[in-house]
């Protein structure tokens, strides 16, 4: 049973289908592992053992009757603590929501439950989901699975840790500026950010509705794709996927600037491997991207402040000061500027689509830096600010341009690449990632 903790979601689902794994035993194995793990309190905000056991029992009965609801029926999953769970606290990583217990599951959790997935519990996250570092002194900072003492990446920090430490086969996170993909890169996982709007966000505590997305963090592309298919996302046939003739564009504007040497070396190694496997690598810039990044601060902070201001103004001292400072910047953005900014961004997105139409994906390093030490950023507000902005810079490209994006580990320890596809073409991007994954795995130390 202990090997179940290191298997992926798809493999566990196949084991249930073949009768080798009883979903009840599987749930108990993960619950016991969580209970015994020395870092579990930094990874899970709270578990839902009664719910998990009831859902696993129902999955076991369906498996016995031959009425499984899908390939992942009976497979456990962890949930970032901003997805509402009926009767269980959902606090979004902040004391501002301490004791908040919703009466209804989030829409995405309802879909997952209907597909037979088993809810293990809620994972820790960056406060209000507004940081890419994964540091949260107000609740807990999860550990990094690859570098001792380093931040795990955020804001889906506990989600990544739950999978990387064998405490869930797949995790559900959210991504507004990189919060699925950064922790995936820094913990050696696959992270999938779908096109905005592909999955429902009703019942998920928002940060910025017009950028927020939900998606999986997993050990493999197949596991992440399987979760998406289970909850109503695309279900592409990943068999036979090939890199031969795939046109990949290295975006040289913004995302290739000031990349740490180890990250740059890992990226070069990944590009060489992709090219050797048949991909055709091109390089180009996109000048409007500079302006898009200038606009990101006002667009993000204004919307975040609009939703959070009531809670913040009632108790500002309850927040971690760097997060409070960041979200409070939205107070000074006028409605006219926000509306004009979105209109301008819409034009940029159309121009981007025209520029990228001849390529299968735009590729860049997953993050421009390796994860810094948690103690260093916690004790230095300016380092927190600069490291956070640099951490989210590359992932934010897809959020700003409205693209699906997949993070794959590649080239080095806590390094990875991003494949950014065309809006709405999530299935095609997953096939490309499925072809790239085994090639990039060979580049890892």
Automatic annotation (TrEMBL):
Domain Amidase: start-end pairs: 26-429
InterPro entries tied to this protein: Amidase (IPR000120), Amidase_CS (IPR020556), Amidase_dom (IPR023631), AS_sf (IPR036928)
Gene Ontology MF terms in the entry: transferase activity
Alphabetical UniProt keywords: Transferase
Coiled-coil features, chain-numbered ranges: none
SUPFAM superfamilies: Amidase signature (AS) enzymes
Superkingdom as given in the UniProt entry: Bacteria
Listed name of the protein: Aspartyl-tRNA(Asn)/glutamyl-tRNA(Gln) amidotransferase subunit A
